[in-house]
Write a structure and sequence with these properties.
With 139 residues, this protein is α/β, with parallel strands linked by helices. The chain has a single domain, classed as Rossmann fold (3-Layer(aba) Sandwich), CATH 3.40.50.1010. The chain is 55% helix and 12% strand. The protein has a 5-stranded parallel β-sheet with strand order 3-2-1-4-5, sandwiched between helices. α1 crosses α2. The longest helix has 16 residues. The chain is globular and about 40 Å long. 37% of the residues are buried.
């Protein structure tokens, strides 16, 4: 089982978020026990920007068991399709947002996505299995 991880889950853990940190940590551990964790280049970059150095970010991600898995052509094109649908529905962003790239990456390279942004991903990537750590028990 391959689980793609979204930035918000990683920042919950690294920042010890008082609301979501524990639940995100538990969900991540469960996903590790069930298989591989991956993060696309967008998540890698967003997460790394919160560290003092790129090396510190890579070390922390590797300690969590998150592997770097860059996007591919199929994922980029899937992001374009989802973004076009967003615009058709009245979305006002002028460029492809990071979330479309994250969602398409998960949909084309993983079995599921661990994220707290379940509504967005379900709306534009309906075939993607989305796990929401905010629904994890805290025990």
């Amino acid at each position: 089982m391959i689980t793609a991880v979204d930035t918000n889950v990683l920042l919950d853990i690294f920042g010890a978020d008082p609301v979501f940190g524990r639940r995100s940590g538990l969900a991540l551990r469960r996903c590790v026990a069930e298989g591989r964790l991956v993060a696309c280049d967008v998540v890698w970059a967003e997460t790394a920007s919160f560290f003092e150095s790129p090396e510190a970010a890579v070390d922390a991600l590797i300690r969590l068991g998150v592997q770097f898995l860059p996007g591919n052509e199929e994922g980029a094109l899937a992001a374009a399709v989802a973004w076009r649908e967003y615009r058709r529905r009245g979305g006002r962003r002028d460029r492809v947002a990071a979330d479309f790239l994250i969602g398409s990456h998960a949909a084309t390279t993983a079995d599921r996505l661990l994220t707290r942004d379940r509504g967005f991903y379900r709306a534009y990537f309906d075939a993607l299995t989305v796990l929401d750590p905010s629904r994890e028990p805290t025990r």
